[in-house]
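We store sequence, tokenised fold; for instance:
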Amino acid sequence: MRPYKIFAGNSNPELAQKICAYLGVELGDAKVGRFSDGEIRVEINESVRGADVYVFQSTCAPVNDNLMELLILLDAFKRASAGSISAVVPYFGYARQDRKAAPRAPISARLVTDLITAAGANRIITMELHAGQIQGFFNGPVDHLYCSPVMLDFAVQLGLENPVIVSPDAGGVERARAYAKRLNANLAIVDKRRAAPNVAEVMHIIGDVKDCDAILVDDMVDTAGTLCQAATVLAQQGARRIMAITTHAVLSGPAIRRISESNIEQLIVSDTIPLSPAGRACPKIKVLSAANLFGEAIKRIHDLDSVSSLFN
């Protein structure tokens, strides 16, 4: 069996180190810096000829810089004769533009997968895509991981009484239903009308949340407008405790302030995106690591074992 090596860009070095620690390997020797004009400069300082290479890079903020780092790293390994190249993208940016939602609109998610393919990736490993159909944009294997095993283990320890899992919109019902099934909880849905990107107006709750411990479940939290408005309505409908579980902590703009001032008791996120200093200082935000999930997925892929059994 060919050896495997893990390399990382600058988006989330702490998570990359945790994955390497789980696998018992050293992070590969690659330097990702800048020329004086800001262009990205990559140096691979060890041989990767014939090796299975895993390139770790979240496309979080600064999104375009991190995406370009990923593409240049992939190209470097392709030209260095790596045996196979897997792009490990814990947070897949541009996933919200997955279809033509308006005339003359781009499908940016397809463009990004095409760029990753052209740069040299044979496989993509990612977590909690905003839209599952993005897997079909890539002409190769896509290992779509879920953070639910980590989140569910923590949720069980919360000592919930009469729990109800709440989807903040109709698109997240499938995810919320999966959580509700595993926690033996009821399900509720927020009827949301979106007037513009990052602007949402919550209408009402479908389901009973009175005297319940409510957990809002979503794939990501960006400006936190939807999440905090949903928490307000849940409180108005008589929910006893309100918590939130989101895999990707984008937390842009006024997100931290909104969460701090909201009815949300605790926001549970993963480390697919590193928190800003303000995010780390917020006492309501709890970070759980997805490193072991990524590490185990890489191990199983390399050993030709099942990845989907991780989530059964």
